From TrEMBL:
InterPro entries: AB_hydrolase_1, AB_hydrolase_fold, Sec-Metab_Biosynth_Hydrolase
A GO MF term: hydrolase activity
Keyword entries, A-Z: Hydrolase
Ranges of residues in domain AB hydrolase-1: 6-203
Keyword Hydrolase: yes
Protein name: Alpha/beta fold hydrolase
Organism: Lentzea roselyniae
Length: 210
């Protein structure tokens, strides 16, 4: 079966994906979702990617999944292991040489002005636990240019969350068209779909298994 290598977002931890992992594992897949060294100023995005690669039991038949800020890291993993597929979930999409800190201006991002942009559709007990596990982000990761010359040459898919209050669907549709040029699959969920719609998200991810 397929191995899913999940790259969590900024300030997050692998725990956020435990419900998706359970659903995929119930279908016989292997799932890894390591905690990235997001607070370590000595580490950059390449080191974050190495954390994921090092956690893999095998580099054969791997689908790499990147969520939110993890969209800048997941392509590095996919390129390193020649992944079977790359799946980006309401994720930031990089350009070669672009520093993550510049992404917001370059894409024309504006705050939606909506309240509770992350957990509005997450069950309260999961939202509370997720907030307890939040971590800081290193400046190193934000300031270094994205290191690849292009997105990796692997099948690439985008899952767009239509109830996302952080990366709104209107904004993300434009960014995906501009930077990725693929047709998104849409999921009725907020930014943290891995906690609000884990079963539905796992079912979508499973369709990308070899």
């Amino acid at each position: 079966m397929t191995t899913f290598a999940i790259v969590h977002g900024a300030g997050d931890v692998g725990w956020s994906w435990h419900l998706v992992a359970e659903a995929l594992q119930a279908e016989g897949h292997t799932v890894i979702a390591p905690d990235l060294p997001t607070e370590d100023e000595s580490k950059d995005l390449t080191d974050w990617a190495s954390t994921v690669v090092d956690a893999l039991p095998s580099t054969s038949d791997v689908v790499v999944v990147g969520h939110s800020f993890g969209g800048l890291v997941a392509p590095l993993v996919a390129a390193e292991i020649n992944a079977s597929a790359l799946v980006l979930v309401t994720a930031m999409l990089p350009r070669p040489g672009e520093a993550p800190g510049d992404w917001w201006t370059n894409t024309g991002y504006t705050d939606s002005g909506l309240e509770d942009q992350f957990w509005h559709d997450v069950p309260p007990h999961l939202a509370e636990e997720s907030q307890k596990r939040e971590r800081d982000m290193s400046e190193t990761a934000m300031s270094k240019p994205w290191p690849l010359d292009a997105m990796p040459a692997v099948p690439t898919h985008f899952i767009l969350c239509t109830e996302d209050r952080f990366f709104t669907p209107e904004f993300m549709r434009r960014v995906v068209a501009d930077r990725l040029g693929v047709e998104s699959v849409e999921l009725a969920a907020g930014h943290c779909a891995q906690l609000s719609k884990p079963t539905e998200l796992a079912a979508l991810l499973a369709t990308y298994a070899a």
